[in-house]
Amino acid sequence: MVTAVKLGDVAAQVEIQAGPHRLVSLLTREAVEELGLEVGMQATARVKSTNVHIDRA
Question: Hey, what domains does the chain have and what are their CATH numbers?
């Protein structure tokens, strides 16, 4: 579940709660707007090494 979305002029920070884990992803503001990410919605996070990718669920 998306717990926070912080939008800057160019970049954005999205936080997801996945069970006991909190995941944070830094991505472009444009990507957040295109995905329509909002607090409370379900999303999927894929973790690869030190990168966190977020997709709509």
Answer: 2-56 (2.40.50.100)
C-alpha 46/C-alpha 23 separation (Å) is 10
pLDDT in tens, the chain (57 residues): 999 999 999 999 999 999 999 999 999 999 999 999 999 999 988 887 777 788 887
Rounded to 5°, angle at Cα 23 from 19 and 3? 75
pTM value surpassing 0.70: yes
Neighbours of 17 (CB within 10 A): 13
